[in-house]
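Structure first, sequence second, as always.
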């Protein structure tokens, strides 16, 4: 125990140290080796969508000679290719070590693809990359050609006359300082790199743009930014514009004394080059607007009035005027003029509490009035810049301009520009006036745009909801959502026989479908997609009443939760509200909820405190004090609860975790609380706290250092209510941990989701095995096990939902013949059909039946699989199996010899040849023999 505590102290000391690129490279090699040797590498995963709602696009690259051929890079969903104008897409980055894309570029002369990994946006889930990837065989294989510590790549420019001459913009680390940022140049195809522009360790380059007719002339935008878990500062004195006249070999700062903004309020800058001298710059100005003087005087009270009003003046307010304020601002019914004044008289509350009541930890983010988006133009190569418009571009950036920053110019028309923000807007007069080209089938939050240099009006737009194509300059759009690239935060499976899967997505709400829904294009014919939207915003956690699957609890960001009755299509807002005079609650972006297994009327919800409802969210009681370190000053809600877990073995035994590293437990429904994280690494995000279903004293905790660029896997188990902890990260590669879950049948089986894949342990974390079959290296935010179906469903943040049958894993973990060389697990029965081997018409696909034979082998060998009935061998075939789990597909047909054997013993049984020339087995019981192992299945 002393050595364990020493280890924990050591880990605590280094908990907030960014992970080095050397460690990451070693870990990626470790993971690849681990995947190849994994005993679960053959467990097949199936993507179950959705495709109707997509994920955030990072960039597009279109063949200018054939615009029906293009690539699209998704922020955390990989790279996809189409050569039929977006009708279908093929993933081409799945065999790489990451799916995180910042920018892409293609040398269309040779087909060489460059991918700058790590998303360029600086959002909550902008995942770091692993440098520059290059493919010379159209994505079949990838080589990492350097810039390993760049983390986030913003732009790639390829010399059209020399494909080995490449310039790259690098933003650098998101949550920490680093030196590998700025502009980098290679002249040998990535073998070596030169840093040609560097400002400092906190300032990177967010954009690089080149003159279409002259690769020597380039412009670059630097961006000083600092992101912490509690604050984002997206501006600074070092944000500026630079110019190169030698193809990115050297740079000169050109924005000083030029008319372009300078100073501490200069934010993210995007660039669009029309020619060598004509350039547009889109600036996210964080300078404050002049104080607005209202032209129309109003006698109505505002929140700010209560920040300075005296007690006497407050008590002298008319009840009518005060009630109008209280009602219009959503104060609870109990707070009306007469009783609020009485509370002030006796000193229970102060007048300033009315202003505080309307504020929350996120108000600073949305209330700050800055200039926001503004467009500048130079016509003399950057010597002078002039703002193109007089009015504010309100609503383009809302309050988060750091999330956008893309501007484009039509190279056939100097005055036609496009600005990307919450909407996408267009100007035909050089930025003097703008109109929106967002339409009803176009998602908001625009991230990428390609403008056809040869055909004006042909544009391809990438946004947070996927891809849109227009041929009439945005008057009408076609939606190209074919890939399953949803960015899920959460997943839930209900307890129905044909169970439903629910999930919350980044900026795309909450969706639900039957778990076995087919992911094809038939819905475009019927008009009914199998996935249904039940909530907007950023979709969050879901809980479903086990007694009535129509009662669903879900919501969107910052704790805005609802109780939905899907049968009546009614919903009720159920967020707990602080009382007047109480400090406003702080809600995490992903606010946790938990429906008690002991009583489905009881719902828990976490702010910085834990709240409990005994009546399905209609009313709330707060059952804790602040269970965090108290928050920090900043513009991001912090000091909030992130995970809630009530023991299935004892009502009122509840664990909670916070975003600032605290884990607390109560054994008496909140009467008393104990902090149990003092011996764990400090200040990290408690991504999951799980009370064991098997041992009342057991609890699991995962901590996440992503917000410090610390990718160490922190996984712990306690068997004494958290008094002591055991580190069970063992052989896990470096990657931040998002979720851990126990198997519902076996206490030794654990499942783990990380920022780069999924793992399973058969021994409570002593060692881990990596899943990889049909599963790319993608961030996994959540997972759930449907106990009856024995399905593991994982929510990826970039590749939608996947499912796998884990029945064989459970049988193995339960000790099913582990000592045997080979073990056959339970095989599902199959129902006989007269349609086997037939098709609806000669033009339709043949209906081909099949069963899956799950088995485990302790060595890699070639074996003969024999199928018998009444000791007659009806089929046999040879297969190669790997050490570990294998899934063998068998089409339930006779072999040629097997048919003769069967007919010899069953002369009175007629076996008809199917239309596909196969002879299928009749109804009956069958035995499977492989070496000394036996199994069975039934055809009903």
């Amino acid at each position: 125990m002393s050595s364990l505590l020493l280890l924990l102290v050591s880990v605590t000391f280094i908990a907030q140290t960014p992970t080095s690129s050397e460690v990451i490279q070693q870990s990626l090699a470790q993971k690849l080796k681990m995947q190849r040797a994994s005993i679960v590498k053959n467990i097949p995963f199936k993507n179950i969508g959705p495709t109707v709602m997509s994920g955030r696009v990072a960039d597009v690259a279109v063949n200018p000679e054939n615009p029906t051929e293009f690539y699209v890079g998704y922020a955390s969903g990989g790279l996809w290719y189409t050569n039929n104008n977006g009708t279908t897409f093929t993933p081409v980055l799945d065999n790489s070590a990451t799916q995180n894309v910042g920018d892409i570029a293609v040398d269309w002369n040779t087909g060489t693809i460059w991918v700058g990994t790590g998303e360029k946006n600086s959002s909550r889930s902008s995942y770091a990359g692993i440098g520059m990837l290059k493919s010379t065989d159209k994505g079949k294989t990838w080589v990492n050609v350097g810039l390993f510590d760049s983390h986030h790549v913003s732009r790639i420019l390829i010399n059209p006359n020399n494909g080995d001459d490449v310039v790259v913009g690098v933003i650098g680390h998101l949550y920490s300082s680093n030196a590998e940022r700025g502009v980098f140049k290679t002249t040998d195809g990535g073998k070596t790199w030169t840093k040609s522009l560097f400002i400092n360790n906190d300032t990177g380059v967010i954009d690089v743009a080149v003159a279409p007719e002259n690769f020597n002339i380039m412009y670059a935008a630097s961006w000083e930014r600092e992101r912490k878990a509690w604050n984002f500062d997206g501006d600074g004195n070092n944000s500026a514009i630079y110019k190169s006249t030698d193809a990115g070999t050297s740079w000169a700062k050109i924005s000083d004394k030029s008319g372009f903004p300078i100073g501490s309020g200069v934010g993210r800058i995007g660039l669009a080059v029309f020619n060598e001298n004509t350039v547009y710059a889109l600036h996210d100005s964080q300078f404050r607007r002049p104080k607005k003087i209202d032209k129309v005087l109003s006698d109505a009270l505002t929140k700010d009035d209560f920040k300075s009003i005296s007690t006497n003046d407050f008590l002298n307010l008319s009840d009518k005027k005060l009630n109008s304020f209280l009602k219009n601002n959503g104060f609870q019914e109990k707070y009306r003029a007469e009783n609020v004044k009485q509370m002030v008289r006796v000193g229970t509350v102060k007048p300033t509490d009315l202003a505080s009541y309307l504020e929350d930890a996120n108000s600073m983010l949305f209330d700050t009035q800055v200039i926001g988006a503004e467009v500048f133009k130079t016509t003399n190569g950057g010597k002078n810049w002039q703002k193109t418009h007089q009015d504010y571009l309100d609503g383009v950036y809302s309050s988060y301009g750091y999330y956008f920053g893309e501007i484009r110019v039509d190279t056939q028309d100097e005055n036609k520009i496009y600005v990307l923000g919450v909407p996408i807007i267009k100007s035909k007069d050089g930025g003097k006036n703008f109109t929106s080209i967002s339409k009803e089938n176009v998602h908001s939050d625009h991230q990428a745009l390609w403008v056809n240099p040869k055909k004006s009006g042909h544009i391809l737009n990438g946004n947070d909801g996927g891809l849109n194509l227009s041929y009439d300059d945005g008057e009408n759009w076609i939606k190209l959502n074919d890939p399953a690239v949803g960015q899920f935060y959460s997943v839930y499976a209900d307890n129905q026989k044909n169970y439903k899967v629910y999930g919350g997505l980044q900026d795309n709400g909450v969706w639900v479908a039957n778990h076995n829904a087919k992911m094809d294009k038939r819905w475009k014919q019927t008009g009914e997609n199998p996935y249904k939207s039940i909530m907007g915003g950023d979709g969050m956690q879901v809980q479903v009443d086990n007694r009535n699957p129509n009662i669903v609890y879900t919501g969107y960001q910052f704790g805005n939760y609802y109780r939905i009755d899907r049968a009546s299509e009614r919903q009720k807002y159920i967020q707990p509200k602080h009382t007047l005079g109480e400090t406003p609650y702080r809600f995490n972006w992903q606010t946790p909820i938990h429906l008690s297994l002991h009583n489905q009327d009881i719902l828990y919800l976490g702010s910085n405190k834990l709240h409990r409802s005994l009546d399905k969210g209609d009313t709330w009681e707060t059952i804790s004090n602040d269970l965090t370190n108290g928050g920090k000053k900043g513009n991001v809600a912090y000091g909030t609860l992130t995970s809630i877990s009530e023991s299935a073995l004892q009502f009122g035994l509840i664990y909670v975790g916070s975003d600032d590293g605290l884990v607390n437990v109560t054994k008496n429904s909140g009467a008393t609380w104990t902090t149990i994280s003092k011996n764990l690494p400090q200040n990290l995000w408690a991504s999951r706290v799980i009370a064991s279903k098997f041992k009342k004293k057991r609890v699991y905790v995962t901590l996440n250092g992503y917000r410090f660029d610390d990718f160490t896997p922190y996984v712990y188990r306690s068997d004494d209510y958290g008094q002591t902890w055991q580190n069970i990260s063992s052989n896990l590669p470096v990657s931040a941990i998002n979720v851990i879950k126990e198997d519902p049948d076996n206490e030794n089986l654990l499942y783990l989701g990380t920022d780069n894949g999924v793992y399973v342990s058969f021994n409570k974390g002593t060692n881990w095995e990596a899943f990889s079959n049909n599963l790319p290296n993608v961030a996994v935010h959540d997972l759930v096990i449907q106990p009856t179906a024995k399905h593991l469903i994982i929510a990826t943040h970039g590749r939608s939902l996947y499912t796998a049958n884990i029945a064989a894993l459970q049988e193995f973990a339960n000790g099913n013949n582990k000592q045997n060389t080979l073990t056959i697990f339970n095989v599902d029965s199959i129902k006989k059909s007269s349609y086997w081997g037939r098709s609806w018409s000669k033009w339709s696909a043949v209906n081909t039946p099949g069963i899956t034979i799950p088995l485990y082998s302790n060595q890699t060998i070639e074996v003969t699989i024999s199928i018998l009935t009444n000791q007659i061998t009806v089929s046999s075939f040879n297969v190669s199996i790997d050490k570990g789990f294998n899934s063998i597909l068998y089409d339930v047909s006779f072999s040629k010899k097997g048919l003769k054997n069967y007919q010899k013993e069953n002369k009175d049984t007629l076996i008809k040849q199917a239309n596909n020339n196969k002879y299928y087995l009749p109804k009956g019981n069958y035995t499977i023999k492989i070496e000394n192992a036996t199994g069975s299945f039934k055809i009903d």
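Margin note: The CA atoms of residues 117 and 769 lie 26 Å apart.
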